């Protein structure tokens, strides 16, 4: 985001081109190495591409550097059971950008990982962060199932495949099995 | 006419592309084509009304017709027509919900309002056209502002209490209310109250109800009362509190209950097995023929990808009118269960193991080596199509085998030399013309529910119906004449008087009747031959399965209950109800794993009726084509192709290798197959054909069908049919 603000669109495009070229070079070099020496572990290119994508997206910059360090006055408010860290700035930023959280893994995170008690504080519904004020669970509370993909997933969903490690069964009929003698 | 027949033949030979090409060629010749298309158009419009041609002033109006003017256009309609029928004849669209041509007129939806005008002026208010008889000198106006406003008002009232749940409604996309709201509905509602809600009714495992959506057209009520003949549905309450439902909590006990789904103009009655499965625009319709009974009801198979998702009736006035039975409609889920998808052969330990096609075919060829033709037998099954039956017969005959029989043929037809001895001679639409109906050893309610509805229609018109055999409830009153022949006139004087005076009597004989019973029946009409109209043959045999008449036409005989001892090689073409003794090598060609596949030594997977281009002949001798809607599962192939391949491996190659070849072979064997979709000409009654015998005095003639819902491999594999059976048993 900072890059965007400073250099504009052209800068971002240039950066993307550079990143793509370096990625390409790296892949060529690694394949040559692979032919010569088998014991060298191949870097996971998809992960690298992901990282570049995330970098360009501004998520890393924002989450890792801008929020915690650029604003020195940011206050660490607390951490939830999913490992999300919550920060707040009282003055000097636009209202609505003054509370945020940093997930433990910035490559694989979900907004659904924010528990209900933190949700109210994060979205300015209330000012009671559960680390400061004791959160009283409502009587109708049920186990949160959305995060970790435990909730309902439609038939053929990619998430379902991830969770249970099997693909959707595309066979539309049930075959007859002969009786064993 | 001659050219349209030629076109039909071209269609049969070359398929749609050939026909399109031919049509393009025709249109390329303007001097001839205009006349041609005119002729075609006339031959296609089957309604009795017609639009007079302006140029032809000399044409005189027949006495039974009257003329009227619809929106400034003159039409001729039969006298006694309603205003709506005149509008239909003029090609003017009238919106409607409660009117249905097959049901009585209720006139309670008020959607079909039109303006009438005569010499005294405009009608004081718009008139419901469905219930208004057309008077002479009346002009019909359907496009006035008043009519439009009135229909919009009616639509607004209908939508007051109708829920806005189209996105989750199964009728969405094929809903009359949805469509007509596009024309007459407002873009906003003025209703601010609370919408009416109605408790859903349980009509059993086949019909789903969401009664809040009901607009009280009462089509289902009239259908149940008039066609299905069950007084289960009705309206309770008055005004805003009126509800459609069963009076007490019970199922709709009818074999034709599924038709209310088609009749319902909104989503109040929908199909339970099809619920939330697909939208109508996702489906591929295929025109086909039903095989669940011997009527050959015309159906539309709706499929998506490799699944058949639903089956709907297709209108054919000569066969099934607008209806199909519940078995025909709901058994399709059986097509996805218990399927044979790979060839199997018995390996070590005499257990069936999946093998390759070559191995399976070679195994059969090896088993046939050294077996003489007399030790072989070939049996056709209940669902076998004519193409595979002829391929099996040709193969068997080439191997020297003459035991070629079909199961479920019935003992009533011991020899098939004369076609009129085993057909439904008066034709199904001939039931409407009959003046007395006598049933012998049959229960059309379970053997052919759609025919039963037609007989019921005749009964409502006052045709006396006698029944010889088990006294069953056929949904209409019958005169019971005893459990078995002889038919004594003393038992019911009224009925025998009607029989004596009948000009067009119809005797419905169950296919499983004894030849002696058939002889008795024939003798009955031998005495009354003078009174019977010329060209009318009263003998109408009601068969039970789709393959029977086709098999008889192709020279199959009646199969025994068990294969005789000493047969070494037995071919079962989907025949599951024949016991095979130990020691015989059984080759099963079929699509479902049932009794036959369990007994088999080699299983060759074949296609079900939705998966192949096939010909079926119905009980009146009308050959019809079933068309391929989806591909057969796995490695399954068309039955006749399997037999063709097998003949090659066995060294007796059959002389055809494409569908056209098989069909021309069919025409060679029986000229019936030249005239697809046509019932045979009515055969004059030629006198008794069966040998007289003794009929056991204590036997009660009855149908062999125990359970209507489960009669063949498909319906036995179907979950919906199992649920229906259970629900009926628990009732």
From TrEMBL, chain A:
Q: What is the lineage of its organism?
A: Eukaryota, Viridiplantae, Chlorophyta, Chloropicophyceae, Chloropicales
Ranges annotated as spanning the membrane? none
Entry's family note: Belongs to the complex I NDUFA12 subunit family.
One matching Pfam family is: NDUFA12
The UniProt function text for this chain reads: Accessory subunit of the mitochondrial membrane respiratory chain NADH dehydrogenase (Complex I), that is believed not to be involved in catalysis. Complex I functions in the transfer of electrons from NADH to the respiratory chain. The immediate electron acceptor for the enzyme is believed to be ubiquinone.
Identify the species of origin. Chloropicon roscoffensis
Chain segments annotated as coiled-coil in the UniProt record = none
Instruction: List locations, semicolon-separated.
Output: Mitochondrion inner membrane
* Topology versus the membrane: Peripheral membrane protein
Q: Per the record, GO CC terms? A: mitochondrial inner membrane; respiratory chain complex I
One GO BP on record is: response to oxidative stress
UniProt keyword annotations, A-Z: Electron transport, Membrane, Mitochondrion, Mitochondrion inner membrane, Respiratory chain, Transport, Ubiquinone
The protein, known as: NADH dehydrogenase [ubiquinone] 1 alpha subcomplex subunit 12
Indicate where this protein is primarily found. mitochondrion
From TrEMBL, chain B:
Q: Which organism is it from?
A: Chloropicon roscoffensis
* Annotated Low complexity bias: 37-50
Spans annotated as Disordered? 37-63
Under the heading InterPro entries, the entry gives: 2Fe-2S_ferredoxin-like_sf, 2Fe-2S_ferredoxin-type, Mopterin_OxRdtase, Mopterin_OxRdtase_4Fe-4S_dom, NADH_UbQ_OxRdtase_75kDa_su_CS, NADH_UbQ_OxRdtase_ferredoxin, NADH_UbQ_OxRdtase_Gsu, NADH_UbQ_OxRdtase_Gsu_4Fe4S-bd
Taxonomic lineage is: Eukaryota, Viridiplantae, Chlorophyta, Chloropicophyceae, Chloropicales
GO cellular component, alphabetical, reads: membrane
Q: Which PROSITE patterns match?
A: 2FE2S_FER_2 (PS51085), 4FE4S_HC3 (PS51839), 4FE4S_MOW_BIS_MGD (PS51669), COMPLEX1_75K_1 (PS00641), COMPLEX1_75K_2 (PS00642), COMPLEX1_75K_3 (PS00643)
Protein family (similarity comment): Belongs to the complex I 75 kDa subunit family.
Biological processes annotated in GO: ATP synthesis coupled electron transport
Name by which UniProt lists this protein? Subunit G of NADH:ubiquinone oxidoreductase
Which cofactors does this protein require? Answer: [2Fe-2S] cluster; [4Fe-4S] cluster
- In this protein, which residues make up the domain named 4Fe-4S Mo/W bis-MGD-type? 283-339
**Keywords, A to Z?**
4Fe-4S, Iron, Iron-sulfur, Metal-binding, NAD, Translocase
Q: Does the UniProt entry include the keyword NAD?
A: yes
């Amino acid at each position: 985001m900072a890059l965007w603000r400073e250099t504009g669109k052209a800068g971002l495009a240039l950066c993307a081109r550079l990143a793509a070229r370096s990625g390409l070079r790296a892949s060529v070099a690694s394949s040559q190495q692979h032919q010569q020496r088998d014991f060298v572990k191949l870097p996971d290119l998809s992960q690298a591409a992901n990282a570049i994508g995330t970098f360009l997206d501004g998520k890393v910059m924002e989450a890792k550097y801008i929020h915690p360090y650029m604003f020195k006055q940011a206050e660490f408010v607390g951490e939830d059971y999913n490992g999300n860290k919550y920060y707040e700035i009282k003055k000097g930023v636009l209202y609505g950008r003054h509370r945020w959280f940093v997930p433990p893994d910035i490559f694989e995170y979900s907004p659904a990982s924010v528990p209900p008690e933190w949700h109210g504080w994060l979205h300015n519904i209330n000012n009671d962060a559960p680390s400061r004020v004791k959160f009283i669970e409502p009587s109708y509370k049920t186990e949160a199932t959305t995060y970790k993909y435990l909730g309902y997933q439609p038939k053929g969903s990619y998430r379902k495949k991830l969770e249970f490690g099997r693909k959707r069964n595309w066979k539309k009929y049930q075959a007859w099995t002969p009786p064993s003698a | 006419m001659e050219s349209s027949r030629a076109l039909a033949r071209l269609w049969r030979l070359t398929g749609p592309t050939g026909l399109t090409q031919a049509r393009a060629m025709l249109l390329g010749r303007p001097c001839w084509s205009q006349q041609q298309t005119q002729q075609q158009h006339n031959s296609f419009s089957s309604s009795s009304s017609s639009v007079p041609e302006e140029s032809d002033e000399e044409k005189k109006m027949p006495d039974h017709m009257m003329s009227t003017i619809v929106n400034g256009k003159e039409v001729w309609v039969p006298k006694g027509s309603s205003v709506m029928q005149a509008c239909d004849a003029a090609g003017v669209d009238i919106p409607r919900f409660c009117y249905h041509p097959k049901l009585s007129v209720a006139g309670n939806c008020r959607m079909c309002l039109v303006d009438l005008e005569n010499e005294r002026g405009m009608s004081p208010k718009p008139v419901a056209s469905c219930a208004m008889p057309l008077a002479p000198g009346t002009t019909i106006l359907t496009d006035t502002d008043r009519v439009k406003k009135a229909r919009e008002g009616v639509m607004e009232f209908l939508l007051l209490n109708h829920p806005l749940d189209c996105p989750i409604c199964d009728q969405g996309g094929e809903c009359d209310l949805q469509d007509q709201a596009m024309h007459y509905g407002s873009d906003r509602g003025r209703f601010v109250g609370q919408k009416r809600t109605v408790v859903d009714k349980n009509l059993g495992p086949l019909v789903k109800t969401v009664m809040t959506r009901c607009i009280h057209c009462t089509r289902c009520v009239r259908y149940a009362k008039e066609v299905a003949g069950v007084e289960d549905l009705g309206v309770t309450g008055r005004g805003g509190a009126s509800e459609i439902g069963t009076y007490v909590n019970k199922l709709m006990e009818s074999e034709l209950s599924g038709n209310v789904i088609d009749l319902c103009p909104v989503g109040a009655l929908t199909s339970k097995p099809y619920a939330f499965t697909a939208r109508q625009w996702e489906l591929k319709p295929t025109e086909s023929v039903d095989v669940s009974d011997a009527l050959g009801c015309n159906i539309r198979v709706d499929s998506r990808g490799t699944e058949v998702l639903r089956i709907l009736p297709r209108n054919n006035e000569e066969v099934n009118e607008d209806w199909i039975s519940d078995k025909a409609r709901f058994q399709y889920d059986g097509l996805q269960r218990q399927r044979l998808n790979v060839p199997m052969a018995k390996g070590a330990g005499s257990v069936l193991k999946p093998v390759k096609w070559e191995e399976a075919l070679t195994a059969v060829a090896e088993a046939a080596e050294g077996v003489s033709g007399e030790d072989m037998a070939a049996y056709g099954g209940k669902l076998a199509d004519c193409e595979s039956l002829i391929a099996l017969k040709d193969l068997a005959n080439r191997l020297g085998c003459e035991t070629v029989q079909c199961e479920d043929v019935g003992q009533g037809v011991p020899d098939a030399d004369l076609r009129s001895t085993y057909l439904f001679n008066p034709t199904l639409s001939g039931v409407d013309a009959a003046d007395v109906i006598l049933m012998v050893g049959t229960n059309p309610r379970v053997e052919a529910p759609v025919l039963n509805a037609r007989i019921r229609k005749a009964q409502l018109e006052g045709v006396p119906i006698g029944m010889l055999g088990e006294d069953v409830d056929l949904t209409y009153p019958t005169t019971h004449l005893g459990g078995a022949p002889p038919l004594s006139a003393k038992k019911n004087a009224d009925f025998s008087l009607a029989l004596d005076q009948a000009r067009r009597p119809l005797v419905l004989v169950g296919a499983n009747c004894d030849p002696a019973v058939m002889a008795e029946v024939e003798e009955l009409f031998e005495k009354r031959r003078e009174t019977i109209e010329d060209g009318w043959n009263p003998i109408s045999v009601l068969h039970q399965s789709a393959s029977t008449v086709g098999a008889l036409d192709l020279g199959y005989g009646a199969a025994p209950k068990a294969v005789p001892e000493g047969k070494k090689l037995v071919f079962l073409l989907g025949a599951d109800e024949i016991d095979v003794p130990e020691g015989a090598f059984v080759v099963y060609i079929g699509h479902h794993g049932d009794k036959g596949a369990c007994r088999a030594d080699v299983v060759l997977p074949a296609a079900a009726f939705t998966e192949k281009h096939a010909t079926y002949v119905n009980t009146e001798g009308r050959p019809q084509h079933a068309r391929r809607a989806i591909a057969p599962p796995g490695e399954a192939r068309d039955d006749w192709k399997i037999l063709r391949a097998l003949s090659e491996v066995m060294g007796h190659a059959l002389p055809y290798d494409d569908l056209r070849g098989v069909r021309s072979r069919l025409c060679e064997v029986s000229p019936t197959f030249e005239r697809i979709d046509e019932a045979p000409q009515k055969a004059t009654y030629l006198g008794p054909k069966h040998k007289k015998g003794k009929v056991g005095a204590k036997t009660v003639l009855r149908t062999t069908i125990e359970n209507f819902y489960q009669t063949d491999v498909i319906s036995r594999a179907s979950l919906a049919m199992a649920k229906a059976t259970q629900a009926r048993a628990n009732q």
